[in-house]
Structures are given as C-alpha cells and as structure tokens.
Task: inverse folding
C-alpha cells in the first residue's frame, strides 16, 4: 500500500512542478530569427548602394561628420544609422 501511495505522491509532485514551470517560464514566444538578413533591429536605412566600397565610403563620410553608421554584409549594401541620427545622416549624404 505504501508503494502505491509513494507513486501517487511522486506523480503529484512532478505534475505540480510541471504546472509551476509552465506558469512561471511560459511558452517560447521569442521572435523568429531573421534568416533573410533584412531585419536590422534598431537601425534605420539611409542609403542603398550596389558595391561594398561605395558603402564603406558613405560610412566613413558619416563617421567623419559625427554620425554613428554601419553597413549590411550582403549586396545590395545598406548604410544604416540609429533613428535619432537619420536626419543628420541624410543631410551629410546630400552634401
């Protein structure tokens, strides 16, 4: 009789643990990773150029004018800045 009681208690504790973990951890609602390479998170696109060298020139120009900038890794190359710097970046690139 004690073996049945112990088995019921073990399954009850495991069940309660499973419910507690489900409640506190929840399900996996993380966003799907960007496999295409088109989501740049917080960065905003200010220019698209066909070559890596052209992208590097624009990034250097932006950095020389105090704008934090980077480029994407794949063609067509996107020059990106933080949203607060978009207006300044566009002014620099027009000049």
Result:
């Amino acid at each position: 009789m004690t073996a049945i009681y112990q088995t019921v208690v073990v399954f009850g504790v495991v069940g309660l643990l499973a419910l507690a973990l489900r409640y506190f951890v929840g399900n996996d609602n993380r966003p799907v990773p960007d496999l295409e390479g088109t989501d740049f998170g917080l960065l905003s696109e200010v220019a698209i150029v066909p070559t890596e060298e052209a992208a590097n020139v624009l990034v250097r120009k932006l950095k020389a004018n105090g704008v934090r900038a980077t480029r994407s890794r794949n063609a067509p190359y996107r020059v990106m800045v933080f949203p607060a710097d978009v207006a300044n970046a566009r002014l620099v690139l027009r000049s």
About this structure: The chain has three helices and three strands. The first strand starts at residue 44 and ends at 49.
